[in-house]
């Protein structure tokens, strides 16, 4: 009994340590992003945000409308999480390079699909030509627990080579759903 209590405390400590690490990374990313912009650009952004929010509160939407819209968005998000099985637990983004028509961002994403945890790290290169924006994924790194299936590790390696996030999410959704069915079936027979 005491061992279970200690384990629960240790799990909570590890979760808090992870949260501290993520918040520290997020703080460093924000601090680093702010060094990419000059003081003039920061002041312009602040003024534009202030005028936008003043315009919204003066006549466009009331606080009750905003609350209703937020609740609607939360319901939609909840539906999508239940429908797809994806539950994202953390996301961080760090701007590596930014020019007039090109931006490189490093993303770190973690979550679960049904009961399978995963972590992704990748760079996203966005380029703007005239009015067209194109995005390219590079340096994709996927971490998944593939306990009993070597095909999963082969699949992950192939996805990392091609940098194909859409195929990864589609395939993970299907695999995780059937993985969950198999797990429940085997528990039934134990």
TrEMBL record:
<feature type="coiled-coil region">
    <location>
        <begin position="6"/>
        <end position="33"/>
    </location>
</feature>
<keyword id="KW-0175">Coiled coil</keyword>
<dbReference type="GO" id="GO:0034080">
    <property type="term" value="P:CENP-A containing chromatin assembly"/>
</dbReference>
<protein>
    <submittedName>
        <fullName>CENPP protein</fullName>
    </submittedName>
</protein>
<dbReference type="GO" id="GO:0005634">
    <property type="term" value="C:nucleus"/>
</dbReference>
<dbReference type="Pfam" id="PF13096">
    <property type="entry name" value="CENP-P"/>
</dbReference>
<dbReference type="InterPro" id="IPR027801">
    <property type="entry name" value="CENP-P"/>
</dbReference>
<dbReference type="GO" id="GO:0000775">
    <property type="term" value="C:chromosome, centromeric region"/>
</dbReference>
């Amino acid at each position: 009994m005491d061992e279970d209590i200690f384990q629960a405390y240790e799990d909570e400590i590890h979760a808090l340590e992870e949260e501290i690490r993520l918040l520290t990374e997020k703080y460093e990313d924000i601090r680093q992003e702010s060094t990419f912009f000059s003081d003039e650009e920061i002041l312009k952004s602040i003024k534009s945000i202030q005028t936008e929010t003043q315009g919204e509160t003066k006549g466009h939407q009331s606080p009750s409308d905003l609350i209703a819209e937020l609740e609607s968005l939360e319901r939609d998000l909840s539906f999508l999480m239940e429908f797809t099985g994806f539950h994202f637990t953390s996301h961080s983004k760090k701007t590596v390079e930014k020019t007039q028509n090109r931006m490189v961002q490093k993303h770190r994403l973690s979550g679960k699909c049904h009961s399978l945890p995963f972590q992704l790290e990748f760079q996203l290169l966005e380029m703007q030509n005239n009015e067209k924006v194109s995005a390219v994924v590079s340096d994709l790194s996927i971490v998944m627990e593939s306990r009993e299936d070597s095909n999963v590790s082969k699949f992950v390696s192939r996805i990392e080579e091609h940098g194909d996030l859409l195929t990864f999410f589609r395939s993970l959704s299907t695999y995780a759903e059937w993985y969950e069915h198999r797990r429940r079936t085997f528990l039934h027979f134990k």
